[in-house]
Write a structure and sequence with these properties.
The chain is an all-alpha fold. The chain has one domain. Helix content is about 80%, strand content about 0%. It has nine helices and no strands. Helix 5 runs antiparallel to helix 6 (about 145-200). It starts with 6 loop residues before the first helix and ends with a helix.
């Protein structure tokens, strides 16, 4: 859904007709030449924002999702390790836990950087919109030469509508990355709770159920995009099959919640 946010800008660039009246404006004098120049600058700025939204944001979002997939693969290793008997080497569990949680630290930074870039793009778009409004005001002052200005006036509604649409797209992108940043913060909190709990109570007292619950909570926080649903499903299947008898109530509840949440995220990605 986020990757499609820049398509409106591309349609805008294709919709604006070429300025065939440049020669007329050049002959008309300074005010018309300035109007043409400012319109051309506005078109270039909007095209630059379109290129950013379609390439830069998409690339950084994909990079963040790829890092999240790597982190989930590390978490899967921990799920496989605790599948056996409740006992075992507690220190080895701690070492695998730390190595599995470490990649989650790398997810938050790219999301924050992309959010900053989206904010900057939105500011530039607003500046371009203000420049367009100045052009509109100048056009109103040149009504005495209506015959020459009409060709420009026909393009102004298209520019206005496109600027409004890009403003909405930029706001939607910013809202999406704000949600991603919050998810990354929640991931870090759950990760710290698991690490501090294991160190505070001793690795031996952290049994299979508590490891499983921590892993499932991380999986629930990691469901920020449909592309990670397969990894989460693999982890939940591994945890579920690791119990020969009836699942503990807390683990069963978390498995149900994570499974339903994964289905919702996958469906949203398909429909979005």
């Amino acid at each position: 859904m986020l990757a499609q946010a820049g398509l409106g800008g591309l349609q805008f660039a294709q919709a604006i007709p070429a300025m065939q009246a440049n020669a007329v404006f050049a002959a008309a004098g300074g005010p018309f030449q300035d109007l043409v120049r400012r319109l051309e600058v506005f078109k270039q700025k909007v095209a630059m924002q379109d290129a950013f939204l379609r390439s830069g944001v998409k690339e950084n979002l994909s990079k963040s999702i790829n890092r999240l997939e790597v982190a989930l693969l590390q978490l899967y290793k921990l799920a496989v390790f605790i599948r056996g008997a409740p006992g075992g080497d507690g220190m080895q569990k701690m070492m695998i836990l730390v190595s599995a949680l470490e990649p989650f630290q790398t997810v938050k930074l790219p999301l924050r950087l992309v959010s900053i870039r989206v904010n900057a793009a939105q500011d530039q778009l607003q500046n371009s919109h203000r420049a367009l409004m100045q052009v509109v005001n100048q056009q109103n002052e040149l009504n005495t030469r209506r015959a020459a200005i009409e060709q420009v006036a026909q393009q102004l509604p298209v520019l206005q509508a496109t600027a409004d649409a890009l403003n909405k797209q930029s706001a939607a992108l910013l809202a999406g990355f704000t949600e991603l940043r919050e998810k990354a913060t929640q991931l870090a909190l759950v990760m710290n709770d698991m690490r501090n709990g294991a160190r505070g109570t001793g690795a031996q007292s952290w049994d299979k159920d508590r490891f499983a619950e921590g892993i499932l909570r991380l999986c629930q926080m990691a469901l920020i995009d449909g592309r990670v649903c397969d990894e989460v499903e693999t982890i939940t299947t591994e945890i579920s099959s690791g119990y020969s008898g009836q699942l503990p109530g807390s683990v069963a509840d978390l498995l149900t919640k994570v499974g339903q949440f994964a289905r919702d995220v996958a469906q949203k990605s398909i429909s979005g």
